[in-house]
Amino acid sequence: MYNVVEKFGKLYKKSDAVILGIESSCDETAAAVVRGGREVLSSVIATQIDIHKRFGGVVPEIASRNHTLSINGVVGEALEKASLKFSDLDAIAVTYGAGLAGALLVGVSAAKAYSYANNLPLIKVNHIEGHIAANFVQFKDLTPPFTACVASGGHTSIVDVKDYNSYGLVGGTLDDAIGEAFDKVARLLGLPYPGGPNIDRLSKRGTPNINFFKTQKGVKKDLSLSYSGLKTAVVNYVHNLKQKGEEIPLENICASFTHNAVDLLCDTTVAAAENLGYDKIVLAGGVASNTYLRERLALRGKEKGFKVFYPEPVLCTDNAVMIAARAFFSAFDGVNLGGLELNAVSNLRI
Ligand code: KG4
Ligand code: ZN
Which tens digit of pLDDT belongs to each residue from 160-197? Predict the structure, then answer.
């Protein structure tokens, strides 16, 4: 009999709950088992990067098909690595948004099936909150409240993390996400997908000596950011050089773009932290693995007296550890129970 509501109730304040997390919002099919929200028992990530590389970006339909092919194997491997069976689990957690609708649906459908077949509660997870929770795994003593900056391929959000289950959006991009800008600029420069890590690598050998804008932008009062203008400015700069037949200073463009994209994000995050008055700043999301962003935020934060946290790169990019971790804190407080009616919400917000 499928009676997960009662089982979910039993998870309330259970500090050693073992949760299987499932993530399929973009181009990684991932599953992980986490105990007590902070202890990783296993983590498996099947990436589709090589499949999408030839198209220069993620093709949604191809992503969904490949999630379908991988999901059961990835989940099986995660359980095997943890030496557990479904009957040893307390709950199943899944990302239900934001992300590509078809890709999300694969994870959501699989999670519902596993939940139903094994009579396990299903916990729904917001992907952005998941990214933030990666820090709870990395830093065992980290507790809210804090200011979080989530920088990824789909999001650039500054979040007031009041408590484990209380989030408020205080700033972020009005148009493109920062990772999207990294990927688009990389594509323009002929670098393979995903562009972010390649720009990061080349930046280290370059000098940030190019001003793409005539006037430097400052922190906005409403803590909003914009990346579409920067992307266009880099495009114009490169086209101009090409028209004049001049050499493209690849490494300097990468370094200058990175500084431009990152500096204002760091300054805006620190301004948000000053407004909120917490003593901690937490960085998360795929772009949080960027070398310069980590250094810059640590430096700017320290100057203003904040403690700055960021996870190791494998916990920054998409993974299921962060999903299981986020779900633990939902279960602990008895919120975010999903049911068989759970659907993917591609534009889910904080
Ligand atoms: O969090 P994530 O894995 O997926 C989303 O939720 O979007 O983030 C992927 C994004 C991509 O845009 C990728 O280019 C970017 O993170 N990224 C980086 C770096 N590593 C990944 N961007 C800049 N520097 C990096 N080292
Ligand atoms: Zn992500």
Answer: 999 999 999 999 999 999 999 999 999 999 999 889 99
177/215 Cα distance (integer angstroms): 22
Ligand 2 midpoint to CA 332 (Å): 24
Evaluate whether 135 touches 307 at the Cβ level (below 8 Å). Answer: no
Ligand 1 pocket mutation, candidates 317, 318, 319, criterion most atoms within 8 A of CB: 317
Name which residue leads in pLDDT, 78 or 4.
78
Q: Is the CB of 182 under 6 A from ligand 1?
A: yes
Atom of ligand 1 nearest to the CA of 195: 14
Q: Decide: helix, strand or coil at residue 103.
A: helix
Considering only CA atoms, which of 284, 293, 290 is closest in space to residue 315? 284
Residue 101 has pLDDT above 90, yes or no: yes
130 Cβ below 6 A of ligand 1 = no
Q: Whose CA is nearest to atom 11 of ligand 1?
A: 153
Residue closest to 44 by CA, chosen among 24, 60, 30:
30
225-242 mean pLDDT: 94
Using a 6 Å cutoff on CB, does residue 183 contact ligand 1? yes
Residue 2 pLDDT more than 90?
Answer: no
* Ligand 1 and 195: CB distance under 6 A: yes
What are the structural domains of the chain?
5-134+316-338 (3.30.420.40), 144-310 (3.30.420.40)
State if residue 317 touches ligand 1 by the CB under 6 angstroms criterion: yes
Rg of the chain (C-alpha set)? 20
**95 bridge partner residues:** 125
Q: Is the pTM of this model over 0.70?
A: yes
C-beta atoms surrounding 34 within 10 Å = 30
pLDDT average, residue stretch 96-106? 97
Token pair for residue 232? Answer: 């266009």
pLDDT for residue 1: 56
